[in-house]
Every structure is written in structure tokens, then in C-alpha cells.
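We examine the record.

___
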Amino acid sequence: MDYVIVGNGVSAIGAIEGIRQHDKSGSITVISDEAVPTYGRPLISYYLSDKIKFETLPFRPEEFYEKNGVVMRLGSRVLSLDTGNKVLTLDCGDTVKYDKLLLATGGTPVRPSLPGIEGPGVHNFTTVAHAETLKELVDKVKKVVVIGAGLIALKAAEGFAEKGVEVTIVVRSRIMRTYFDETAGELIVNHLEKNGIRFLQGTGTKQIVRYDDGTIKGVDTDAGLVEADVVIVAAGVRPNMGLAAQAGLTTNQGIRVNDYMATSDADIFAAGDVAEAKDLLTGEYTVRPIWPNAYTQGRYAGLNMAGAESPYTGGLSMNSITYYGLPTISVGETNLADDEAYETAVYLDRDRSVYRKLIFKDNVLAGCILIGEIDAAGFYTSFIKNGFELDAEGKERLMEGDPSPALWPDSFIEAMMNNP
């Protein structure tokens, strides 16, 4: 069996491990337009700020690929996919045949239609190549504007601020609104402002202003001109579905997959930020561009490419990151605008930047936001993932910050003990 994986993110690692769990001898080829093997993308801000070395970025050591018999075709772009003949054509002219194919092509940075965006001084921040480019600039620039509200925007800002660069983040609405409510966002902003990052929230961007020689002057916003030497555009990422569309696969928000991570072509699978897969809590099919889902989807895709017939139970909305020592996490349903079907419990200590919000539906924990104190996050997540029903006492203990495993059903504990 010839397995081919297009893409170089954590989904590819999951797929390799899934394939080898079920098939020890089939050939595995990974094709990526990046020049380096899979690395921890959330780490590139630390690489930019010289907190870590390049050698610490790889997600798996070189021996991993050798041990698993993986052929790496790095720096290679797939130009076309012929599903009839099961052939990929690369930009170098080579062709690669497959029996089972995984599309783990990730996402492409959104480039908004802003006057002045084309030209030097405007950068993205999603790959190690972007970080390499910015490392050459970080000691030469004094002011940076970051356009965006998500994790990429915040981590790019942190990377520059750590090097003493004056950073302003321009946000059309508010930060991290997909994962955090207004209170959580406010705590994070206050913490980052104490560490030197300036925010313009609820502020639209009009254009990127340049001098006559084409260099960056600044960003024109609803609040006026913000001076900058460099602009980072982190306005979101959209699934990279070009190959899938060219091949006629079913797409919507992402490449649509079934419960076995297979696309509308039974020999082609998709996983990670490009896949529209089942959500664990809602049962709906959606794109969840986060690391744990990407790895798990890749692993199930690999298992099923190798014939295991193992259904993917579904992804979970989750975000966990630390900003200048402030740990944060959100899990499950966290932004429910006045929905009467849900009950919320909140604990807030602004002085210590501690926030806990629990969301219940029908006596089941449906989501949580934790800021500052997150030690119990794993236990809260277990209640959300498993849908444990709680009595009044159980809910009260969770609300008080005590999601004890003693509240798990006996049947669940017994099953854990019988399946080490």
C-alpha cells in the first residue's frame, strides 16, 4: 500500500502514527512546500524573540521519520491531483502515485482588501519561514502594527514586544472572540498592556500608508494614523482547499469528511485545519483549526487509510495559551449570547487576574473559560467531553472550583480501570 500525505502540520504526524499502528510495511510519502519537517507552530513567536533555538522547533526528531520509513519531499508543491489515475503532479515535474491520500494542507492567511497592502513591509506570521524573515527585521525596526484579533495576532505582537519593539494591535471588534467572552478578553488585554503592548479594539483599518519610496509610514485607522515600520497582517486563516476543489471533492467551509475522515472520494482523506469534521458536542460538521483536533483527526485518518475502520468521535472547541505568564484556556461552548437553554456560573478576581466561567446545559457542563488559575482544566474538560450529568451538589462543587474525579460516574471509572 502506498500512502501519500500532502501537508506538513501536526495532522501529518498523527497520520504517520495512525498508519503505522495498523500497517507496519506500507510506503509513506510526505509532500510539503515548506523546507523543514513538522514543527510546533505556536512556538514561532518564541523563536522570533530568541527565547528558543531553531533546533527546538521540530515536533518529532529526525529518527521518527527514519524509524517509520517515511520519505520526505520537502520544498515541493503539488500542482494537480488526478483522482482517476491516483497521481499527484509536483512543481518540479515529478509525479507521485498513491493508493490512499491524505490532504492535510492546513490554512492560508487571509489577505484583506486594504489600500497599500501590496508591497514591502507587510508580512504574515503563520510559518517558520515567516518567522525567519521577521527575525532579520526585529532588531532594525522600532514600531510594528499588528492587524488582527486572534491567537496569531497576539503571539506575533508578543514576539516583537519581547525584543523591545513598540507594538500596537488594531482590532476591528475584540480579541479572541471565538474562544473568550468580553470579561476574559478584557483580563488578557489588561495583562498584555501592562507588558507594553498597545491595543486599539473596536477600531477599523482603512489603509496602509506608504512614503513615496514605498516604505511603510503607518496604518490609517478609525482612531487616526498609527505609525509603523512593519505591518503584520493576522486577519485570520482560511482552509487551503485548492487541490480538493480542483479534484472535484465535496467542500463547504472546509473539505467535507465523514466519520472515518474520508472525503467524497473513498481513497482520499482530509484532516486538520482544512477538514470540515464532526464536532463532539453539537454533532455538526465544522472546521476547528486547533492543534489537538488536527493531531487527532490525522491519527484517525491514518488508521482508516490503513483499513482500521475506526470512527472519529468528533473534535472539541479548545484554546490554551499563556500570555506573559498569564495562563488561559477555553473549552467547549463558551460564547452563548443570552441563550436561555444554558446556565452560567462566574467567579472573578480582577486584582489577581483570575476568572472562571462555567456553562451548563441540562445539568451537563458544556463549556468553561479559565484565566489565571487553570490547574483543574483537565478535570473540567473530562466533564465536558464525556457529558457527565450532575446533581445539584455536583454542580455546586464545579462552580466552587472543585471538579473532582470523585464526581465521575462509577461506570466510567470502572471502564478506565479495565482498559489501562
Summary: The chain has three domains: 2-106+240-306, 111-236, 325-418.
